[in-house]
Automatic annotation (TrEMBL):
Biased composition (Low complexity): 1-54
Region annotated Disordered, chain positions: 1-81
Basic residues composition bias: residue spans: 68-79
Presence of keyword Protein biosynthesis: no
InterPro entries: DUF6319
Coiled coil spans: 134-161
UniProtKB keywords: Coiled coil
Entries under Pfam families matching the protein: DUF6319 (PF19844)
The species this protein was found in: Saccharopolyspora griseoalba
Transmembrane segments: none
Name assigned to this protein: DUF6319 family protein
Record carries keyword 4Fe-4S: no
Length: 167
């Protein structure tokens, strides 16, 4: 055989080996040195280089690359916030009432609250809040004490007038 005939025979054998399906023991063997040049030449042509061992590992149908699935965000990892609005209203007479809103819906309206409960709740809050509420409560106490002193003075006048009428 001449050198050209030998090269053609090797090329034909390598093409047949690349096209033949890999079965049995041939599938586990590594590609021979003869099939390697043929695989390289097809890879440079822009087509995919495929050997018998690769076709056994891949499925027959070319499946597209798996899409990256978007995972739903878990709400358990987030800190859930609850919107509650508590409004405590006091009058000059020292009467306190509370209104409570939950997510914009009125839950409680006009609930009577004792001044002592307002004072106790204020003490549990931040000092800026408690100082302001205590100032309001102190002003209400002073007004009540003034009113009490006025009423006691009037009661004393009425008793004197009654005593004069009985004598």
């Amino acid at each position: 055989m001449t050198e050209e005939q030998t090269n053609q025979a090797e090329a034909t054998a390598s093409q047949e080996a690349a096209e033949a399906p890999a079965t049995g023991a041939a599938a586990s063997d590594a590609p021979s040195a003869e099939s390697a040049p043929a695989a390289e030449s097809t890879a440079t042509d822009g087509t995919s280089a495929s050997t018998g061992t690769e076709s056994a590992d891949k499925p027959v149908a070319d499946s597209p690359a798996p899409k990256k699935q978007t995972r739903k965000k878990s709400t358990a990892k987030k800190t859930r916030t609850v919107e509650l609005t508590l409004t405590v209203t006091g009058t000059a007479d020292g009467e306190w009432q509370a209104d409570l809103l939950h997510a914009g819906k009125r839950v409680v309206q006009g609930l009577q609250i004792p001044a002592a409960a307002v004072s106790k709740a204020a003490a549990e809050l931040h000092t800026d809040i408690s100082e302001t509420i205590e100032d309001v409560l102190n002003k209400a106490r002073q007004e009540h004490e003034a009113k009490l002193a006025e009423l006691e003075a009037e009661v004393e006048r009425v008793r004197k007038a009654l005593a004069e009428l009985e004598s």
